[in-house]
Design goal:
Helices cover about 40% and strands about 15% of the residues. With about 260 residues, it is of the alpha/beta class. The protein binds nicotinamide-adenine-dinucleotide and ligand IMJ.
């Protein structure tokens, strides 16, 4: 018997088999959760559908988180199929590529707005939709990165978006806590995914992180899945409003 037997989990943010959201989905599935997946656009649908089917997903639906109509349609479909929800996984981030290099000071208004809309406001919108459907309480999880607190080369506007995401997570936790819904963020160390591919120097970041981290290793999508399982199950029952560092200890170092 899994620790999440029969729980209904919506996973937003699978792009391919390397996605952190896919690591989480596999963990939840192993523990007996039922799953729903979203995809962004037709090209990703071709990637997401076979993954979702491999864990017997009940729902596979489009969702661009910047589009309120798509969010409404997604939850209407969940109402039809499940009539409620227990877990929401938010693993979505986007900034224009030109805003992820050079100087942060050069970020334009539109790029700033886009990064914060996709990467931070989306948690607010999804929590507003999910909350009333979590009638027996629930768990909401988002993914963040230490660039919210400290300066990492090229992370730039994403760092600001992650700071807004973490603060939003805390305010949401206060709002929905009385309904027995917990909201937390996992701050993962660097992991090679689609969102990390093509970032200048990412290979070097992985190499340096591995060499310096107290555990002398990097973290994986599977590590994130295990922490997500814990937070969604009895181990997480008293935890809300927290940023949990899953980074092999990297963030404790001074120099
Ligand atoms: P990924 O590229 O696999 O996932 C990012 C997802 O965001 C994709 O599925 C993409 O389709 C989705 N997305 C982008 N714009 C969207 C929109 N408008 N509507 C709906 N979905 C949209 O990469 P990942 O590394 O698995 O990223 C997942 C989360 O983990 C992100 O929040 C990222 O910031 C965070 N994170 C990543 C790392 C890392 O090193 N890879 C470290 C810490 C935190
Ligand atoms: C991303 C950029 C710069 C430095 C970075 C990252 N470091 C890490 C990441 C050190 C770990 C990955 N990360 C934590 C992210 O949140 C990535 C978000 C992201 C990535 C892209 C690449 C492609 C694109 N837009 C993006 N928007 C957000 O066009």
């Amino acid at each position: 018997m899994g620790s999440l037997e029969g729980k209904r989990a919506l996973v937003v943010g699978v792009a391919n088999e390397r996605s952190i959201a896919w690591g989480i989905a596999q963990g939840l599935s192993r523990e007996g959760a039922r799953l729903a997946f979203t995809f962004l656009g037709e090209s990703l649908e071709r990637r997401v559908r076979p993954l979702a089917e491999s864990v017997h997903a009940d729902v596979i639906a489009p969702c661009d988180v910047t589009d309120d109509a798509q969010i409404d349609a997604l939850f209407a479909e969940l109402d039809r199929v499940w009539g409620g929800l227990d877990v929401l996984v938010h693993a979505v981030a986007f900034a224009n590529r030109e805003d992820l290099s050079g100087r942060f000071v050069d970020t334009g208004r539109d790029g700033f707005r886009l990064a914060l809309d996709v990467s931070a406001y989306s948690l607010v919108a999804l929590t507003r939709a999910a909350g009333p459907r979590m009638k027996n309480g629930g768990t909401i999880l988002t993914l963040t990165f230490a660039g919210s607190e400290r300066v990492f080369p090229n992370y730039n506007v994403m760092g600001v978006a992650k700071a807004a995401l973490e603060a939003s997570m805390r305010y949401l936790a206060a709002d929905v806590g009385p309904a027995g819904i917990r909201v937390n963020a996992i701050s993962a160390g660097p992991i090679k995914t689609l969102s990390a591919a093509g970032i200048n120097g990412f290979r070097d970041i992985l190499r340096v992180a591995e060499a310096r981290a107290p555990l002398r290793r990097n973290v994986s999508q599977g590590d994130v899945g295990e922490l997500a399982v814990a937070l969604c199950g009895p181990a997480g029952a008293g935890v809300t409003g927290q940023v949990l560092y899953l980074d092999a200890g990297l963030s404790i170092l001074g120099v």
